[in-house]
Amino acid sequence: MSAKSYTVKCESTSPCEGQKPGTSGLRKHVTVFQSWRYTANFVQSILSAIDGATREGCTLLLGGDGRFYMKTAVQIIIQIAAANGIGKLVIGQNGILSTPAMSCLIRKRQAAGGIILTASHNPGGPDGDFGIKFNISNGGPAPANVTDAIYELTKTISTIKHCPDLNVDVTSLGTQQFDIEGRQFTIEVVDSVEDYLTLMQEIFDFEALRKLLSGSLKVVVNSMHGVVGPYAKRIVCQELGAPAESCVNCDPKEDFGGHHPDPNLTYAADLVTLMKKGIHSLGAAFDGDGDRNMILGKNGFFVTPSDLIAVIAANAKCIPYFKKTGVKGLARSMPTSGALDRVAKADGLEFFEVPTGWKFFGNLMDADRLSLCGEESFGTGSDHIREKDGLWAVLAWLSIMAARQLSVEEILMDHWTKYGRNFFTRYDYENVDSEPAQQMMANLRSLVDADKVATFIGREFAEGDKTYKVAKADDFEYTDPIDSSVSKKQGIRIIFEDGSRIIFRLSGTGSSGATIRMYIDSYESDKSKYSLDAQVVLRPLVKIALGISQLQELTGRQEPTVIT
Ligand code: VG1
Ligand code: CO
């Protein structure tokens, strides 16, 4: 069969405002991306940022979480990739690839990178958000030097090269060849789940998990109409034998059924309600692109993401992958609670505290110094790929339950008995006006400013019968141990003498206004207090944090949008 021929068209363009990637890719309201020029400018800039020698004839991955506008974006990207010398695009069937599956495929195919079409946990649909994220050849999110280079290109772009007549069927599996002005361009449509499933089979003991899930233990996996649905159905039901009703909301929808595909206690309230009935031993939910997870035990027992990764680390021996590779080191994002630190200390493991965003873990993993890491924002993962991985976290927990024959709550109680408990909470104030949010951060920054911090250190804050004395305060700064790159202004930290912490930062994933995140972490080694409600334990610190930041006065917000 001779390949169909297409010509390249050079379209003149000019820069679009607002193309600076945030914590994880470029996210904007769908209507912004619906302007062809906006999307095409950014895609052209991603490809132009790949150096010429690497780009020519290379393989790239393409896929996303199925949200509204993804199908159109897939065709735009195909047209631009074909015209820019890309050799091959490997695309998930119907464009579907979860973020972890994308990371897995980039690595398996030794691709130059991948383009992920998602705004992750942001709502979708015609009134929701869309997003484009670029992952590099290690399978992980592009680090700042790459996203900075892309951003610079968006500011000077003048031409988009594309093949406007090229339209490709991505619904059927298989390979298609095209002739682009004498060059060969290949599209391979792959099963969205297959390679990821194989990887999971290499990591976990599927036999043991099958035994657990085909017995009397009931689980419920809620994909929130995001991309995990097909993965969960195939792995949890088909491969591991859980009954069909174990997977709910597993058809990916363009608008996530009108919901916020964010697995937390507020947006996954239906899972919490179901778990409170006491029928299921484990409940899980994921975000739109499948990299986040929330895990609940029987009767709705909530596992904070900070504890969730600490428990996996402490029980790594229950997972065949870590029996083989050993655990090289542990890491968490700065606002994540100190629970993982205690496991690292007890096990004598190297430990890293990085800024918010998964991209900061990649270098450490590539250097073989990091095996397990997590973020308080429901992100959990390991060096099996270079993204956080929602379904992997669930299989990890099931592996621990199978090996230890304990319930979720018993596993936690056992963990706290050994290490003590870090109580943690996060308050999100979504869609606050930018100006007061910036003002609040500026005020806090001046408090911890190197020149002035001395007067703040030693100050005491009393609330009820508790008094906290400031031991350290700064705007978090991180020097990457591998490439020495420095990331500044990563969040205001106020650390008290007993180790309790108050942290403030602004979200970098929103598409409008500002989202303030306030994080509180406090350690407790008194056994009689382990079962207390975190909100009760942390109330004094919350009040102190609100007092120091003047958050309510400045923003006019009395209550947060989401409490975790
Ligand atoms: C949030 C989380 C961060 C996470 C990021 C991407 O960022 O806090 O921990 O890595 O989302 O997650 P921010 O800047 O809004 O706080 V995902 O699943 O939305 O790609
Ligand atoms: Co996500």
Describe the structure.
- The chain has 564 residues and is α/β, with parallel strands linked by helices.
- Helix 2 crosses helix 4 and helix 8 crosses helix 15.
- It has 21 helices and 28 strands.
- It starts with a strand and ends with a strand.
- The structure holds alpha-D-glucose-1-phosphate-6-vanadate and cobalt (II) ion.
- Cobalt (II) ion binds at residues 99, 120-121, 287, 289, 291-292.
- Its cofactor is Mg(2+).
- It comes from Patiria miniata.
Unique bound compounds: alpha-D-glucose-1-phosphate-6-vanadate, cobalt (II) ion
Beta strand count: 28
Q: Given the helix and strand composition, which structural class is it?
A: alpha/beta
Low-pLDDT residue intervals, each spanning 5 or more residues = none
**Anisotropy-based shape:** globular
The portion of residues assigned to helices is 25-40%
Largest sheet descriptor? 8 strands, mixed
CATH topology tier name of the largest domain = Alpha-D-Glucose-1,6-Bisphosphate, Chain A, domain 3
The Rg value, from CA coordinates, equals: 23 Å
Oligomer: single chain
Strand content: 25-35%
- In round numbers, the mean pLDDT is 94
Counting structural domains, the number is: 3
Family: Belongs to the phosphohexose mutase family.
EC number: 5.4.2.2
Enzyme class: isomerase
Keywords: Cytoplasm, Isomerase, Magnesium, Metal-binding, Phosphoprotein
